[in-house]
Design goal:
Number of strands: 3
CATH class of the domain at 31-101: Mainly Alpha
Strand content: 5-15%
Order of helices and strands: HHHEHHEEH
Structural class: alpha+beta
CATH architecture of the domain at 31-101: Orthogonal Bundle
Number of helices: 6
Largest sheet: 3 strands, antiparallel
Helix content: 55-70%
């Protein structure tokens, strides 16, 4: 039986793992809601957490996970940290997902 193309190439397998990790991260409802909130532009945690019915600490944790994976980026302004979508990396993740499903 021949090997399936998306599983036999080491580089493609690495991209597959990244795509699976992406899906795991966005499959958490609150993280997806944060991404949706950030579609309208940069926001500080104080503008995000009241819309989630979560504590500020838990919201910050979800933002940290999204930032670590590169889906959001942050910029400190004074005492506040503003988060925004990392459109370039989000687009890359969606393109990879599309490649595996088509």
């Amino acid at each position: 039986m021949p090997k399936i193309k998306c599983c036999s190439n080491k580089k493609i397998s690495n991209e597959l793992k990244k795509t699976v990790d992406f899906l795991k991260i966005i499959s958490e409802e609150n993280r997806m809601r944060i991404l949706c909130i950030l579609k309208s532009g940069p926001k500080c945690v104080c503008e995000i957490w009241p819309n989630l019915d979560l504590s500020q600490n838990l919201t910050s944790h979800h933002l940290s996970v999204l930032k670590e994976f590169g889906l959001v980026k942050s910029k400190k302004q004074g005492l506040k940290v503003f988060y925004e979508l990392n459109d370039k990396n989000l687009q890359k993740q969606l393109i990879n997902l599309d490649l595996f499903l088509k």
